[in-house]
Design a protein that fits this description.
Length: 267
């Protein structure tokens, strides 16, 4: 089966799984078909699917990951070797990397989730929640749904949960809900953001993980000021690592603006 045939089969299943989707027009070109598949996966509610679907989905996502290329976090230089870092106590265990977090081969990557913890339902949205769920596959949403059903209530800001990584190169995903900022950052929101980093690290250590890659929690859709968020992230992680067995933390940024903010902190 070619890749296009695989995408067409997956689209066909998802269109006929839910009433009303049969009328959705299917693009002629491959890129359009692939975007439609991602959209249908994004809006799909949690639920079991046949093994054939999962097999085709997993084959597709693994092929795409191979093309994007896996970046092993141990191959990323630590900041001690790149920046002065006089104020960073654990500069030999912290790295800064700009790129797609779904390429990182870490024990765990951190997802900036919403309080439902089910991923982003907006088709092809640009948030990291959407990117991680799209690259991991629908199994991730199903596991998140089981976690939330067992919990019985929405996830509070500052807390964290752990799931498998499925088709990501990371073994696990740490889902954390950052604070949503209005016109001004409150002291409570600063503490909640700090708790996001602490609870992710504690979960990782409890699981025996050695490497964690953090995204810029709360700085996108949740409007936490980028500079303040980065300072809280670095201070919290650096302090935690001083008494932790975790040997590598990566601050993953997607925008040049955020990379420059972290570089200034390290310099």
């Amino acid at each position: 089966m070619t890749r296009q045939e695989r995408v067409e089969s997956l689209v066909h299943f998802l269109k006929h799984e839910r009433e009303g989707y049969e009328a959705v027009p299917e693009p002629v070109d491959y890129e359009g078909k692939r975007r439609l598949l991602r959209s249908l996966m994004n809006v799909r509610f949690p639920g079991e699917v046949p093994e054939d679907f999962l097999r085709m989905q997993d084959e597709l996502l693994k092929e795409e990951l191979e093309e994007r290329g896996i970046v092993n976090v141990q191959d990323i230089p630590v900041i001690r070797d790149v920046y002065p870092c006089r104020q960073i106590r654990n500069a030999d265990r912290i790295s800064l990397w700009r790129g797609d977090i779904t390429r990182l081969g870490a024990d765990a990557v951190v997802n900036a989730a919403n309080s439902q913890l089910l991923g982003c339902f907006v088709p092809c949205h640009g948030c990291i929640d959407n990117a991680i769920h799209s690259a991991a596959g629908i199994e991730l949403r199903n596991e998140c749904a089981a976690v939330m059903e067992a919990q019985g209530h929405e996830e509070p800001a500052g807390k964290a949960k752990i799931t498998k990584g499925y088709n990501l190169p990371a073994k696990y995903v740490l889902h954390t809900v950052g604070p949503i900022v209005g016109t001004k950052v409150t002291d409570k929101q600063k503490e909640e953001l700090k708790s996001c980093y602490l609870n992710c690290l504690k979960l990782a250590e409890k699981k025996g993980l050695e490497s964690v890659a953090f995204c810029c929690i709360s700085t996108g859709e949740f409007h936490f000021p980028n500079k303040l968020a980065a300072q809280i992230a670095v201070d919290t992680v650096d302090r935690y690592l001083s008494s932790s067995a975790i040997n590598r933390v990566v601050f993953n940024v997607f925008k040049e603006e955020d990379r420059n903010i972290y570089k200034k902190i390290f310099q």
